[in-house]
Backbone:
């Protein structure tokens, strides 16, 4: 069996689109055997990987970093895994390839395993045992839209006061309506964080982002909409806006900062300002795959926990090296400076208006890697709020789906093994003996509404715009 070799000096062919784990198995097996002697208990509990050669998919975004770092730093190989990383064209292709087995797993939108499991779009039981990051997105508008919005934004010392609420966008949209023009915005996928964050921000400013009605065969999400939201793949966002096809978008990095560097648009708000430390991407696999390869799965999670820790270590000291890795063509492929603008703890809004946002990208701190049930339930509430879930569901239903999809038991097995091996400290994780999977009620939302994951229906009743109770789109 032939495998491409990636040399230990880290050099790679810039034209390479597949990133393949080196196949120097004899050496790695010897090292793994030595590790087993030092940590026999942990390894005995997990057992050898059932499948060693793996292919994982990702989209060209900076938050795929845990995959790239687990590969580049040899964490996958430490687990006896020989991984190929492959960029995917879009989120739908990525999900379909995980479902049909062409990919063993993938960097996914947090809503994808949930949407697939409940049957919104492609149906299959997808699970996650690893949250890849917190925050990392922003909303960008075209220069023309910003010029009008800016008139309604408070300023201090000549600079806009942040966070900028969608209240400032509402009169712009009303002007579009009066002129008979639709106001269009891009997001990356119907069950993406970006869709729900954009909708949340718009609705908090009194702008209706529209409803889905799958029970009527309408999955446009544009019923009764003041702003028309549609799907655009992340790397295409800046060009699509520059062409005038959309007036703004919500996307992950580096595609907001790219708009600043190209001088075609202005990011007006980060998702950190919409919902502080919100969960963003996850690592997803099919449930069938997880059941067939349980040891392999735990070992993958182990490697990615180590990668996430490395990314946040010593107050983000490793971020410049991470940016250098991510700027390679086979990963994100954007310029170093564009990626560094957000990955190194700053964010640029208007050209020259660079502000400190140290938690714009969080990979490990704040228990970022733990798959909280309450995170899953928030996504499900937004699916219900905007009609992707057509009918009322009980609180028990929300909690049941969350537990079916977000597998904290697998995560805990991986974390405990890493603790036993001395790679991480127990204090860096939740107390697994007491953790119930629900964050304390969260209040850091732009509209001031409190979210308690144990009470999803009570949460939904607090929103002036959106479905609640027995509401159904007629």
Residues:
């Amino acid at each position: 069996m032939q495998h491409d070799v990636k040399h230990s000096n880290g050099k790679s062919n810039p034209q390479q689109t597949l990133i393949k784990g080196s196949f120097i198995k004899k050496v790695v097996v010897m090292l793994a055997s030595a590790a087993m002697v030092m940590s026999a208990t942990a390894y005995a509990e997990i057992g050898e990987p059932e499948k060693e050669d793996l292919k994982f998919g990702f989209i060209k975004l900076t938050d795929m970093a845990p995959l790239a770092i687990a590969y580049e730093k040899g964490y996958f190989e430490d687990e006896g895994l020989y991984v190929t990383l492959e960029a995917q064209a879009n989120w739908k292709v990525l999900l379909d390839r995980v479902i049909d087995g062409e990919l063993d797993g993938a960097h996914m939108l947090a809503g994808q395993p949930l949407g697939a499991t409940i049957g919104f779009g492609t149906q299959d039981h997808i699970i996650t045992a690893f949250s890849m990051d917190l925050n990392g997105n922003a909303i960008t508008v075209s220069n023309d839209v910003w010029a009008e919005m800016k008139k309604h934004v408070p300023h201090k010392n000549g600079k806009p006061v942040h966070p900028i609420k969608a209240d400032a966008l509402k009169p712009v949209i009303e002007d579009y309506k009066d002129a008979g023009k639709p106001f269009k915005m891009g997001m990356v996928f119907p069950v993406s964080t970006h869709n729900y964050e954009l909708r949340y921000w718009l609705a908090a400013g009194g702008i209706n982002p529209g409803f889905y009605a799958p029970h009527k065969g309408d999955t446009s999400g544009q019923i009764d909409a003041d702003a028309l939201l549609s799907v655009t793949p992340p790397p295409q966002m800046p060009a699509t806006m520059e062409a005038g096809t959309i007036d703004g978008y919500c996307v992950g990095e580096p595609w907001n900062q790219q708009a600043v560097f190209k001088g075609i648009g202005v990011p007006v708000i980060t998702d950190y300002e919409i919902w502080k430390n919100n969960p963003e991407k996850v690592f997803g696999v099919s449930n069938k795959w997880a059941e067939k390869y349980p040891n392999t799965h735990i070992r993958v999670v182990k490697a990615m926990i180590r990668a996430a820790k490395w990314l946040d270590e010593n107050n983000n000291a490793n971020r410049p090296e991470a940016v250098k890795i991510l700027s390679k063509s086979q990963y994100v492929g954007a310029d170093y400076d564009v990626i560094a603008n957000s990955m190194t703890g700053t964010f640029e809004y208007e050209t020259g208006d660079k502000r400190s946002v140290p938690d714009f990208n969080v990979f490990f701190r704040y228990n970022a890697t733990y798959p909280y049930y309450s995170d899953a339930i928030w996504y499900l509430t937004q699916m219900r709020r905007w009609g992707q879930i057509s009918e009322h569901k009980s609180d028990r239903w929300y909690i049941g789906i969350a537990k079916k999809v977000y597998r904290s038991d697998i995560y805990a097995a991986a974390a405990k093994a890493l603790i036993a091996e001395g790679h991480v400290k127990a204090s860096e994780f939740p107390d697994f003996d007491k953790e119930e999977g629900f964050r304390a009620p969260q209040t850091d939302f732009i509209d001031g509404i409190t979210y308690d994951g144990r009470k999803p229906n009570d949460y939904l009743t607090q929103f002036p715009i959106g479905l609640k109770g027995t509401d159904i789109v007629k």
Notes: Residues 257 and 338 are 6 Å apart (CA to CA). The mean pLDDT is 91. Residues 137-278 form a domain with the D-Maltodextrin-Binding Protein; domain 2 fold (CATH 3.40.190.10). The chain has two domains: 18-134+280-344+361-371+407-428, 137-278.
